[in-house]
Amino acid sequence: MIAELRERIENYSYLGPKGTFTEAALALAPEAAGKPWRAVNNVPEAVQDVVEGRSVGAMIAIENSIEGGVTASQDALASTPGLRIRGEYVVPIRFCLAVRPGTKLEEVTTVAAHPVAYGQCRRWLAEHLPAHSHLPASSNVASAEQLFEAGVDAAITPPTITEHLPVELIASDLQDNHTAQTRFVLVGMNQQVPEPTGRDKTSIIVELPEDRPGALLEMLEQISTRGINMTMITSRPVPDKPGNYRFVVDLDGHLHDARVADALLGIRRFCPKLIFLGSYPRVGVVLKQADLAHSDERFAAARAWLASLEAEDAQDDRASSPSV
Amino acid sequence: MIAELRERIENYSYLGPKGTFTEAALALAPEAAGKPWRAVNNVPEAVQDVVEGRSVGAMIAIENSIEGGVTASQDALASTPGLRIRGEYVVPIRFCLAVRPGTKLEEVTTVAAHPVAYGQCRRWLAEHLPAHSHLPASSNVASAEQLFEAGVDAAITPPTITEHLPVELIASDLQDNHTAQTRFVLVGMNQQVPEPTGRDKTSIIVELPEDRPGALLEMLEQISTRGINMTMITSRPVPDKPGNYRFVVDLDGHLHDARVADALLGIRRFCPKLIFLGSYPRVGVVLKQADLAHSDERFAAARAWLASLEAEDAQDDRASSPSV
Amino acid sequence: MIAELRERIENYSYLGPKGTFTEAALALAPEAAGKPWRAVNNVPEAVQDVVEGRSVGAMIAIENSIEGGVTASQDALASTPGLRIRGEYVVPIRFCLAVRPGTKLEEVTTVAAHPVAYGQCRRWLAEHLPAHSHLPASSNVASAEQLFEAGVDAAITPPTITEHLPVELIASDLQDNHTAQTRFVLVGMNQQVPEPTGRDKTSIIVELPEDRPGALLEMLEQISTRGINMTMITSRPVPDKPGNYRFVVDLDGHLHDARVADALLGIRRFCPKLIFLGSYPRVGVVLKQADLAHSDERFAAARAWLASLEAEDAQDDRASSPSV
Amino acid sequence: MIAELRERIENYSYLGPKGTFTEAALALAPEAAGKPWRAVNNVPEAVQDVVEGRSVGAMIAIENSIEGGVTASQDALASTPGLRIRGEYVVPIRFCLAVRPGTKLEEVTTVAAHPVAYGQCRRWLAEHLPAHSHLPASSNVASAEQLFEAGVDAAITPPTITEHLPVELIASDLQDNHTAQTRFVLVGMNQQVPEPTGRDKTSIIVELPEDRPGALLEMLEQISTRGINMTMITSRPVPDKPGNYRFVVDLDGHLHDARVADALLGIRRFCPKLIFLGSYPRVGVVLKQADLAHSDERFAAARAWLASLEAEDAQDDRASSPSV
């Protein structure tokens, strides 16, 4: 019944309201195009939508988020059985100054902004609006909505705000850091791993066994001895277990690559608390090709060799063939 | 002149206003007790105070912050030459509901809260104040200040708010996650490394050379072959260098421990972009003792042995002593 | 036909003549008991007997031999396709002084001895027969045969000589080194790997790929990451390839132990010149138990976990069962 | 007194008699040219000459010897305190057929030969002298001396025999293996390490601590993390300690190379039974250059960096200089 229901459900959840960076990330996901989107209040709510079948996918921030939620995302991935990453999406962090159409920069005295966004644009504000006052907003979109309330002249918002509200952008790239970007992942409960595309990554979470000194290095060796490149690693203290760590790790390659499957087997053996978060196409170019020595062909050749070690009868058959 | 000025400066900067978790962390630092504190707007501003000599120290969040700034802190540590961590402080994340004295919970209709704090208390709010409306605040302290404006009945604040404002707490532990805590570090420009206490940690940032496959494992082996325990590792993309990573790493031990100094030498040799952030007392117990094989005594014994390999003349002198 | 012939052939070859340490080793092999034994002149001849079907097994020295042949044995194992070690046997190196019955030590003036054996007993000879003269013999048995020629009073021989010749031993343990022993292996062409006994070792020869720096360490990590203990390693220059090495390696464990098979797969992938020499019961106690983390059970559990990662339909079936 | 005596002693000991491969190796050592040479009976005797001051050097076989002694050499190096390798010398193993001048091959019926040499030439003998009989000799030189006794027509000897005896060589390259060679080392008690030549190797013997699982890999990592190439490794059971091993290891590089000294320090710390056997010029070309990352310059730069971490006062001095 739930499975049937799930098939009919097509919602995607994201940290709302409309106009957030998270929504911009969701707009990059082809599978969400044309489907209903649910704006929710925070990451746990988005994940819960997926777990309880209200949505088939949730877009959550996993790295460098301006809208918060990275820690919540990591903890949700570590503690929600069955959750899988379906794809990753990267959104540059850019802020604009939005006004009611016609307002000029010199007329601005009060700026509505989410406190975190406000903190990211201080340098620009100090230079261009040294005398402004700040009105806090609950989100990067709510700030623009406040333009239509009394006493607000400008709002700090993402560039996409003009798709949602009748506002005008009179300045852009207000943020201090011009290369910042947030990485998001789209998560679902569907366990079918997508086919390899040739430029995939695999995400795992490993909680190291506490009784095993050197376990981190042992874990990393399981990865490196298969010639696999690691693109991210973050340690996180395990809640309620002082001194224990789990590691969120991204690997180059796909579960269907023999070297990746073999590395997961190697980690799983000494480290039963291994969570497979998914294999999915990575954003950006793959910088390092896997060594030929760790190709699927080599795995197959090695297995064939191992099998041949005991193929005694076959060999004896050849030896005793009529032609001898 | 600057040095003299610095001696007279005793300010400590922190993310204000008074009443933030960052201020609570600063209150834990013995060296800041009784000195003037400067509340600033964000992490880069706090760090800049130190760099430019306005303060001798800045308290900044380095892990799991509710007030933002972790990424900014890591980037400031990576890009500010000479910055040193002087100590670490851990503050539990706890939120209370503050009201004007006499207000009862059932009278509350509007709640002022920093959007991130608000997001952390949704479960409690849904249960106890299902019908409230949210007024965003620019900080966890500004929310309480709004109690004295029209239309606000309650504010979400840290428990310390009562030290700063004449408010009453009518509920506590509102946060969804009851074990959350933020780790802060106190940074300064003073290069003198504090004496070892026996329970120290050492923080470094390593930017791996891009032309060296397996460099991460090589770096970690430099640590593990000296028997050093790693307590945190986080990869961060290097701004403007796609595919390059720097790693923020915490090690058990002090720069004055021979094994730690030797590991830094080992990393520095193949990885010139190594930043030493400091050795300082760690919070909490040390869970793993360093192996005897990596003790200072062993380092000294090995060096004496190496020196003896060429002490030919000394041996011949003994051999040709009068008694022979 | 060859196969049929082989079944009827029961010979065992060894470095003769009767009475050598190699024959003593062959006497330890249960499968050779009661079968015809062929004394041959050297290790290559013994191996050739097996390759060409004249014998089912050959006993050859592999470590510390007093009778020569270790290098020849290693080279034969490396260059003879299909050769397999069936078992190992350790014989202590002990020399006696044999005489014609009735001869007394003080009557001995000429000692027949194989030059290598003679070199091992110089201390005893200098003490007990300071004035003797040495007559070289072609083997440790030929020396005793010379007792029945004119001019030889005594012979240096293994203790087993009395089983072959009517001689008397008037002194024993003549050898300078009282703990020396030779390790032998029994080799054959039978590819069927014997069943594990719980105290097995596995021998391999690995020729490292020349284009891969760090290949030796990579090879050893394939062994160590599976928790396998290595009991012997010897590098040997590859004939005609200056600067290339092959390594003769003994591992604790059996090919049927999942961790050993997996390690061989790992080595084989980057190092195609891997020769499996056999899994066979080891002599002596096993000193280190394999870690539980590398047990067959863990390998099976890890594989089951890997398989479950894509068992989506099975899980959905459960989810959509009638009871829901 | 001993030191003075030593200065006057110039003897070099070798496994005699004149004409052995060991003597041929000694002829390659420039420092032995023109000095008196002592022919001794075996490796321990040669080493004892050095220990007790009768010789300044002893040439002993260390790999692949046709004249025996490799095991004895390794054990002497492991158990003789103060012994140092001064140089290595490689001699190809070639055997000739020597006769009294005028004898023709077809006249040969009896061949004198050391049994080991005889074993190495069986193929040639089977082809060219199928009906000969073998008379054992005590060395590869004694065989030729027997030509002047009744009943011996030919002798198997090294090519250099004509320098010592009035014999004629009527066939050469009799040995089955045409690429065989023996590696010798010249050992002494002089602890002064010779200056680096740029193509040096360093030999050590390591007895692993028994209580430390994974000690072999840990030892090898100390070598590999400094970018050092290992050119030989051989495990040897420790006499009287079942299950314990020592490893004879050759490294590319010289004790005066910072990376080699640092690797020895690293091994020495966890493995006190480390014997330094010497740094000396290697035979043959160096195939792999050490990585720049492990150059002396990098070691120096890293140490300077480490020192600078605490050079607080120096920096403050600069900061407070009059010009500021």
Automatic annotation (TrEMBL), chains A, B, C, D:
<keyword id="KW-0028">Amino-acid biosynthesis</keyword>
<keyword id="KW-0057">Aromatic amino acid biosynthesis</keyword>
<keyword id="KW-0456">Lyase</keyword>
<dbReference type="GO" id="GO:0004664">
    <property type="term" value="F:prephenate dehydratase activity"/>
</dbReference>
<feature type="domain" description="ACT">
    <location>
        <begin position="204"/>
        <end position="285"/>
    </location>
</feature>
<dbReference type="InterPro" id="IPR002912">
    <property type="entry name" value="ACT_dom"/>
</dbReference>
<dbReference type="InterPro" id="IPR001086">
    <property type="entry name" value="Preph_deHydtase"/>
</dbReference>
<dbReference type="Pfam" id="PF00800">
    <property type="entry name" value="PDT"/>
</dbReference>
<dbReference type="InterPro" id="IPR045865">
    <property type="entry name" value="ACT-like_dom_sf"/>
</dbReference>
<feature type="domain" description="Prephenate dehydratase">
    <location>
        <begin position="11"/>
        <end position="189"/>
    </location>
</feature>
<protein>
    <recommendedName>
        <fullName>Prephenate dehydratase</fullName>
        <ecNumber>4.2.1.51</ecNumber>
    </recommendedName>
</protein>
<keyword id="KW-0584">Phenylalanine biosynthesis</keyword>
<dbReference type="Pfam" id="PF01842">
    <property type="entry name" value="ACT"/>
</dbReference>
<dbReference type="InterPro" id="IPR008242">
    <property type="entry name" value="Chor_mutase/pphenate_deHydtase"/>
</dbReference>
<comment type="pathway">
    <text>Amino-acid biosynthesis; L-phenylalanine biosynthesis; phenylpyruvate from prephenate: step 1/1.</text>
</comment>
